[in-house]
Please model this.
Amino acid sequence: MVRGEAAFEEFVRGRGAALLRFAYLLTGDRGHAEDLVQDALVKAYLRWNGRTVIEYPEAYVRRTIVNQFVSWRRRRSSGEVVGPVPERAGGDHAQRLTERVRVWKVLSELPPRQRSVLVLRYYEGLSDRNIAELLGCAEGTVRSLATRAFSTLRAHPQLADELGPIEREDVR
Amino acid sequence: MSTLEDLLRETLAEQKDDAPDDAELLSVVRGRAVRRHRQRRLAAASVAVVVLIAAGLAGGGLLATHRGSPSTGSLGGFAPSDSIGTVPLVTTGDCAGLSVTALLLSRGPDHPLRVAPFPAGNAVRMSIGEPMWLRARGPCVTWLRVYITGSGLPVTGADGYAAFGSRGDAVIAANAEYGGHGTVAFYLDCPASAECPPRVPPLAAIMVDVTATATPG
Model:
């Protein structure tokens, strides 16, 4: 339970960078990540200085970020153009780098809730239960979103070749 | 042999390094919060103006109609009275006889409030979003100013100031989103640029307690 100016300042100083990283992985865009985090923190700040008690501020801010991200992606009319994807380079390291760049690009094309699930699961390391609480949905929905996201990744023409040698394990 | 999950983890871990820097985050957030709060205050003031106009057309005669009513409220800055007959805030000089009455929606038209000279007594309770109509009578009405301080307060006008119109009417409205406490103070001939408080004591002051579940009285 956190209230007051000093508590807010401490929270932003302590968790601001992590929230920006989280937002950036969701959006793939630095400017938009900053907007998302700032908007979420402004909302939290106004509550902080009002009479509303925020019991779990980080969860509150993360949920706000995800909701705004999903809402923003719904409003967006066309796909975002991300940086060019390099051609396959020689060598294992170069190939792995190319794979990651392609995965990053394909991630940006996923529906926002699917992308959110992958970021929360594979970057934040959250359990499906925690993800479900954060997204406001059932645990089964989280698993379903993850499965669909993986199907999209595997079927994507940018990745089909790359993922050929990768072991195709069932996602949890 | 790696999995797609490994590849995802590697990708996300690598890309996080491109995230924006948080050096200015706190100051930017504070600046945006202040601007947003001001916008909300302006919006609330705009709503209050609309309410005032509507009240002036439809119910503007409430106070006049009930002048002389035997039931008046007992509130901070207001004194109970057998009638709404005014107590002057100013008793000497050119502005002698200046008085203010108030009407809270939640108290109904039968409970107008009489503003007594400073210092104030118990706090007035207002619901969030509730307007308070103020009516000044007597000389120097157009010189009278309302100045509002505190957090989660009734808001109106720019920079916390509001003036009475030529007919002696003004309105304040509790903040639409947050509760809180504050003071509605009355000053004479104190334009916003002069910043009367805290250099000059107010003629009268109403302590206000804004709550989401305020009940009359």
